[in-house]
């Protein structure tokens, strides 16, 4: 599908996957609204032509709704959303700071709820558009030392799946993206806070591979998108053989 002249909105646009999505869409002729709370990172993202920065926190529903309304009033109706905003501090559940556990859910899951309710009613009303939600393979496969992040991404997967089924006849295309580790600053948060061996030993994907998989999946009408070799197989293993998955994780981590 040509993105020439389309309006694209990206959350988490100040770095990583969000920045790359902004620049890819702008290079294809879209007008891109880049949203993030990080003003410095946004300015770097918006240094490319066709990208317009708006500083906003996805956990603030009123501010996020106002930002979406401003985009639609000044640039035009949003055709595609990439919801990339997320954090990834890791740790054992009884050792991780309580506020951090709640913040993971507020940003990773709450941010999705907010952007969906801010942007989708108008898209559904127009009967067209793409809503791309970033979950993770961690939204299918729980791991030791990743529990709070797992919980937030399991919530993302469930919310997006029901959202799709409630609106599957609307004309809006939905995609829930579940990549393995990806070489972005988000992954570095995990390493900085105690990355388990289960993840650390996996070669991270290039983020462009993920974005290319999204385009291919949308063209095929797929909802679940598992970029990279083995991701879909790992999700299937978790569903069919959970005990075997846990055995492998315990063996890898040594406890």
CATH class: Alpha Beta
Order of helices and strands: EHEHEHEHEHEHHHEHH
CATH topology: Rossmann fold
- Termini gap: 49 Å
Protein architecture, described:
The chain is an alpha/beta fold. It has helices at 16-27, 39-45, 61-74, 98-126, 147-166, 185-193, 197-200, 207-220, 231-240, 242-253, and strands at 7-11, 31-36, 51-55, 80-83, 129-134, 172-177, 224-225. It has a seven-stranded parallel β-sheet, with helices on both faces. The longest helix has 29 residues, at 98-126. The radius of gyration is 18 Å and the shape is globular. The model has no long low-confidence stretch (mean pLDDT 97).
Short description:
By secondary structure, this protein is an alpha/beta fold.
Which key features would you list for this structure?
255 residues, alpha/beta, Rossmann fold, 7-stranded parallel sheet, 10 helices, 7 strands, globular
Give the helix/strand layout.
Layout: E1 7-11, H1 16-27, E2 31-36, H2 39-45, E3 51-55, H3 61-74, E4 80-83, H4 98-126, E5 129-134, H5 147-166, E6 172-177, H6 185-193, H7 197-200, H8 207-220, E7 224-225, H9 231-240, H10 242-253
Parallel strand pairs: 1-2, 1-4, 2-3, 4-5, 5-6, 6-7
């Amino acid at each position: 599908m040509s993105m020439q002249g389309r309006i694209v909105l990206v959350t988490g646009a100040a770095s990583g996957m969000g920045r790359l999505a902004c620049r890819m869409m702008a290079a294809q002729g879209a007008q891109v609204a880049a949203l993030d709370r990080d003003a410095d990172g946004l300015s770097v993202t918006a240094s490319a032509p066709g990208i317009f920065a708006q500083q906003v926190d996805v956990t603030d529903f009123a501010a996020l709704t106002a930002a979406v309304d401003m985009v639609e009033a000044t640039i035009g109706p949003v055709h595609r959303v990439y919801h990339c905003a997320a954090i990834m501090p890791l740790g054992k559940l009884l050792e991780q700071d309580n506020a951090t556990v709640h913040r993971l859910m507020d940003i990773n899951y709450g941010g999705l709820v907010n952007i969906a309710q801010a942007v989708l009613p108008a898209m559904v009303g127009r009967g067209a558009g793409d809503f791309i939600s970033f979950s993770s393979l961690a939204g299918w496969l729980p791991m030791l030392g990743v529990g709070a992040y797992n919980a937030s991404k399991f919530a993302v997967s469930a919310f997006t799946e029901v959202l799709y089924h409630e609106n599957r006849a609307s004309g809006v295309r939905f995609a829930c993206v579940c990549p393995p580790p990806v070489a972005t600053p988000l992954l570095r948060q995990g390493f900085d806070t105690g990355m388990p061996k289960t993840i650390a030993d996996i070669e991270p994907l290039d983020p462009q591979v993920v974005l290319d998989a999204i385009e291919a999946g949308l063209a095929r009408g797929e909802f679940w998108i598992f970029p990279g070799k083995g991701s879909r197989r790992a999700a299937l293993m978790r569903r069919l053989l959970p005990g075997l998955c846990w055995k492998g994780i315990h063996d890898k981590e040594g406890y």
